[in-house]
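Shipment paperwork, digital attachment
Item: protein structure file
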Amino acid sequence: MHVDPPLVSDEQQHYARRYAEIAVLAGGLAHEIKNPLSTITLNLDLLGEDLADSESPRDRRMLKKIETVRRECGHLEDILEDFLKFARAGQLHLEVADLNQVAREFIDFYQPEAAAHGVELSPHLGGDLPHVRIDTAMFRQVLLNLALNAQQAMPKGGLLELQTYVRDGLVHLAFIDTGVGMEEQVRDRMFDAFFSTRRGGSGLGLPTVKKIIEAHGGRMTVDSEPGRGTQFTISLPHVS
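Attachment content:
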């Protein structure tokens, strides 16, 4: 069966060119940082092993400091990985996909994690949804980031609803949680790179999500108030 190659819009081509150079630079930067960081971590592990069996108070203090540095090295590695995802968000491999099927597969994948944190998943997927052109791997990253964001907003558990529907000529996917919601100051900055209200967060999760959606020629909107939860809505053009 013959399948026409995916059509790429001018806007998507613009994003591809814009971020290709950034992705190359980011990859080079990651290589230059990862190598010495790995060496540092390895040596910290070796030092920790040398001190692990010592009962000396001095050695126990040193071991505690080594563990602190090793933990911070792990945090740096996490930030670096998030930065790479952010930099490469505009590099897409598009294919025609059923958004409902993508959502179902994600729900099956995420269900155990949600249950472990007291989050109930409630899918409401529209019928006869037009197909969209997406990078499936990138889009799964979007769904995971949004789900984890909702999970963190519901520390005591809650409801996360996923809706798909067609409106105004676009295909929409909404994530609606019953979490703590956001103040206006947070809403205004949540897509700024490296802005985070969570201790230890890289501040790149939501900016990466937004960049991926825009690279697909789509848009993202947010509706949130303190104490009333949050709704993220992804809107994508459909296949003609």
